[in-house]
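Me: I keep going back and forth on a fold encoding question. No explanation is needed for now; the record alone will do.

Assistant:
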Amino acid sequence: MKRVVQHIKSIYIHPTTFWVFGVVVVGLVLGALASWIFALAVIAAVAFAIILVADYGLLYFRGGFIQATRSMADRLSMGSDNVIKTTVINGYSRPVQIRLIDELPYQLQIRNFSILEDLKVGEEKVLSYTIRPETRGLYTFGDLNFFVTTKALGLIQRRIVIKQQEEVPVYPSLIHMKEIELKSLSKISVNQGVKKMRRLGHSYEFEQIKTYVQGDDYRSINWKATGRNQALMINQYEDEKSQPIYFAIDKGRNMRMPFNGLSLVDYAVNSTLAISNVALQKSDRVGLLTFDKEFDAFIKAENKRGQLSLILEQLYSLVQTDVDPNMNALYHAAKRYVRQRSLIFLFTNCNTLHSLERMRPILNLLNKQHLLVTILFENSEISDLAAKRPSSLEEIYENTIAEKFIYEQQLIASELNSLGIHTIVSKPEELSINTINKYLELKAQGKI
């Protein structure tokens, strides 16, 4: 009985069938006016019933089948177009038309997805489509639903469900990370053959004892070796080639503002991953700090194997909150855990001069101990509103308020720069490019 119910549930009527049925019914009704019309309508009804049964038989009783598998990356990328591929094989002995309805994750909120495709006998075809996840987390894909119709008749649809349920995590954008890597490498290669060398001093990693020559640091003289060799000998240390870089992400309520489906925190997360990858390739050490009302997570700046994966997992599990950020928590965390002078990229969203007044003392202290780069977000919608020519009194008010917001953000950036704090004001979609340009600029200037 269960199989009979499942069989009945798999039968769907094609929309064309309803139109043909409607024409037959109209013919039967009009047959009351003339017998020849009624006779034609009866013939059409019988023929329609025969064709319908024949179409049913072609779909169900000739051993036909559809095979399909879904393939995608093991990790999807947040905020990027991810390609999903479904490979379909036509196991029918005749050409068919299929309509694929994939059960997409609820987070995507896509309710009208379908792909219509024709398949020849025995043909294998790859159906590709893209999705753009806008939140991190675990996404559940359901089954693949195929509605099959014959090319010859096409009155009945057979629903074939292929079990393909799977869960895929959505991480910070690995696609975006690769794109930024390629852009940064192309920018570096412009000056290929011209390399600025900067000796950053030495670390405490001992390399060898050598004879003192004029210009060597006399503070490194090894007096015991000097006594044994009766000549000035000096300890030589390895040059410090890598510098610590930390990304501090404010995950408080100021960073919840959405742009193109992503929050400011999500843009900061994607940028952190992309720049971390570039910095690690340039032999710098990379670490992470996250905070809101309290200090939340810390990853020590390292350039060891697996460091990028460690940062990726921490960014994946980052949870945004609705509380106001506490810069004191960031300062005390940096003072406790970041012992060496480092480059700190601070992702935050300061929109008013009042907020700046509360943050300024802490930012000033951080900048004295480290090289601080504060990253603020430009509201592109407000910029577009300010650039729009007003045509009514209401639009004049809106334009004036928008210009006030822009002017205040310019004052905030100017105030931070006057304190010696490097400041980036960036549109969210240009965040990674602007941040990595600042990183390369500071490297070229020898400030880190």
Notes: Confidence is low (pLDDT under 50) at residues 189-201. Residues 174-194+241-444 form a domain with the Rossmann fold fold (CATH 3.40.50.410).
